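Pasting as-is:
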Amino acid sequence: MASFGADNVTTLADELTRRAFLDRTAVLGASAMAATVVPREASAATADTAMPMSIREAGKGIRDGSLSCVDLTKAYYHYIDLYQPKLNIFISQMKDQALKTAAERDAEIKNGKDRGPLHGIPILVKDLYEMAGTATTVGSKAFVDRHSTEDATSVHNLLEAGVVVLGKTNMNEFAAGVSGTNAYFGDCHNPWALDRSPGGSSSGNGAALAAGIGFGGTSSDTGGSIRVPASWCGIAGIRPTYGLVSLHGLFPRAYSLDVAGPLARNVFDLGLLLDAMAGFDPKDKFSSLAQSRTSYAVGIDAGVKGKTFATIKDYTYRDVDKPVADAIAKSADTLRSLGANVVEIEIGPLEGRLDYNKLFTNILLYEFYQILGKKYHDTPNAADVFGPIVAANIEAGAKVSRQDYETTMNERPSYIAEVKKVFGHVDGLLTPALPTTAPLLKASAQDYGRGRQFTIPFSYLALPSVVVPCGFDPSGLPIGLQIVGDHFNERQLLQMGYAFEQATEFHKRHPPIFAKNIPA
């Protein structure tokens, strides 16, 4: 696993490759959205100009001359100055570079060069993605002086597609945890309620996008780090199939569980971002050849008429708070109203036979120890350098034997094959993303741990899922619907998520802290 500038990081290259894993489990499996170029001079925005709410809307303004990339980027930094002290979104900002890139994108449009739908679009990068010329801290004091000399593949692809990167975002240290807390860089706060968790580990991306800052964020998901902030912040996120998006240049959490993917404010924007991020990468020995290269945004409005969704008996509604359960039930009704079938099915492994906590943690903790154990033990006063969650992970990982790890890995393909069979007659599985809305930042580990039941199993099964807002609890905190699909079926997943989103208004609601207008 390439990890530029990371000292003392070992790999499992002789033990595991993603492609071998996909072969064992029998997983089988440019955008056409560029707009017409309209050359023009960059124009200044007026005082009451509304901020664009989507990539498509921003792109239209950039091309028709009503908005410049520089105007938009300056507007975001205006709100960053206002909201960073409250939300603690960023580990590092990139204002000078962002404005330089924005000016270049304006000049390109003026000269007839259009890179596609992401041209001039401001985004965020989670601080475990390498980006040349930046410090990539992975959210840790231990790596505060760790500088990148090369771009992660997906960052490179996005830059080539024309994005403007606003900065590197806050996260749980080494992507360990879902709370959004960070002992060194400070906790990230949810813009819906500042005392609440934004979810993690992609906490900065989740909070920023919910607050209207940027249009998307490069994120990662091992056990829920895309899906948790999507749910608790009321935005959209997709955990792609294992191996779809290159992990070259991402600091690893667990080789056989990690995926990279986008967070965004709506499902169509997810498709545009995934178009740029996905694809086989020869630099990543874990990248999958099984994927097809197709636009995830083109045809996203195909609808769900005739599709079959399934709730899972003794799973979808098990140990779920009532507001969440009610929202999921209403979501099923919405899908029916759109012409879909919704049935209840049984999936034995998800109803109790799969001890996902034990199996998942055997893999996660063993691999995390291989990645970071030596660095941790070689660091003087490690307990003062690394945060408590990482320290606990290292201690627990040291106790997972190689035999237990290998046994767990050998059992995994049979579980995947068993669950995969349901996609012969079902298009998507319906579950909550989390059984609760956002807990207090100071909540106990037990409170956070309860949410793992709907994220970890599908990480273990290497299945893709999309999360979209589907309601709010009585306190006004957002609720997320998770739709799970078959391997490498992201195009249909996004179509299903888009159909639901367009039939509801939840994605149009914004928190009290939100960037609304472009300042003069």
